[in-house]
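Why do we bother with holo predictions? Because pocket geometry can differ from the apo form. Keep that in mind while you read this record for zinc ion.
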Amino acid sequence: MNSGVGLQADGQSRERANRYSVTMGTLLALMLAGSLPDQAQLSRMIARFAPVELKVDLAGLSSGDRQALVKLIEASRIYDELYMRQLWSGNPALYAKLQQDTTPLGKTRLHCFWINKAPWSELDAHTAFLSGVPAKKPLGANFYPEDMTREQFEGWVKTLSAADRNKAEGFFTVIRRDSGKLTIIPYSREYGAELRRCADLLREAAKLTGNESLRRFLNSRADAFLSDDYYASDVAWMDLDAPIDVTIGPYETYTDELFGYKAAFEAYVSLRDEKETARLKYFADHLQDVENNLPIEPLYRNPKLGSLAPIRVVNEIFASGDGAHSVRSAAYNLPNDERVVKEKGSKRVMMKNIQEAKFRANLIPIAARVLAKSAQADLSFESFFTHIVAHEMSHGIGPHQIRVGGRDTTVRQELKELYSAIEEAKADVTGLFMLGYMADHGLKEAALAERPLYTTFLASTFRSVRFGIHEAHGRGMAMQLNYYLDHGAFHANADGTFTVDIPKMKAAVTSLTRELLTIEAHGDYAAARKMLETLAVLRPPVEAALKRLEDIPTDIEPIYTTADTLTHARKHPWAD
Ligand code: ZN
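The structure, written out:
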């Protein structure tokens, strides 16, 4: 699963899956009034995505890997149009038509279409911005016949053998009508031509690279494209250990809003960040030390932490398909195949340069408005990114398996629908606690100066809450924001800006870490609920500050400079 929620870029949900936008109200109202957006309005919609050039230094790559990289980018490019086809049956013809319109309005429409990979604006609850298309994205996308109802599918599935039912509900088939009757078509047939081209490019890349684990992944994935059996290649992906980090295939099921069964094609081609990889290891090596000193009753500490799920930090060179529309993923957790997860676990990939792009395009302008002038200089990407890493590490510590009333259970089971918001807030604050602990105990490689750390965190709470408090990350962040305000750790100034009180912040981080970890240790649903009900709200000073952020871009639009240069890509028509 993917995510991009800034400071708490994380697994369970992704920024793009939560469809709240600061400017949604106005644009949506405009569209629902029945008039399609004109050029100025389309331009405003596009401006919500700040263009950012992605340049990645390839100096460390062998010449074989450099040539392999070109093949991988070319293979990934196939996925943009493949994904458009998966999204809507009308997309290929519409895309071709839009490309022929070279008027300024035509180019703007094409640009907006390209951002969404569809004629519906994702940030505006998938509302149409072009004429002659359905008012909303079809829930089942192009995975099912557009006229098929949920009940029809369910009734039909009941008549199938167990094996066919698995296929009908599986990741890698589409459902079509054959003289009125529903039938199952495997991806290898439905998308045969594109997948064969893609497989050829992966095999060529496999011949060029000198890295054995990459070669094994590429060859097995090429086989999977033609056989629809992705298991072996998912396993090979878990074992991938190479300077080029590539994820390519049908993965996430968010596009299928009817059942969530069907996997959409996406690709990420990245380079491993060696410096961050070393730092991750440093964190991991000190995790037990932090656990042993968590501010909770000693009996709730875990004397022997299990091994952590692998985390990779990479820099994205190119993304496509389901990985390249609307709000961009800054991290993802894969694979989704439960058989592989059970056997090999899952892997988390964090894209450092995407985080940095979001930091520059979104967080710096937010900070310019919510931080007091004297605090501006303390905003730091180093702090921002290190806290994301600490957040991820913090999910691995604290109570998970617990005993409640003599029963063995888990925090997730006990906190039910409140679990995600509490666990995300816990990872944020325990991440701050961890960094404070490391600084205080001379663990230099992971330690950060306090003022930049807390000030950057303060600014980023606004970035997260801005995405809405109806989703776990935003909800958890609103709760923390109010907790720190109530404890005098954050201070609302008369001019509408905010500042941090460092000593009070340190104390509040420890007390909030204790409160949340204790709720988790007790599996205390009632306490979790009370805390969220009182604190996960928008109070007037915060609401007023959010209002002042409305015109700041919501996200980014990556321009793949390195990838485009390597593959001699043609410029987009709107980029002239
Ligand atoms: Zn998280």
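The two ends are 35 Å apart (CA to CA).
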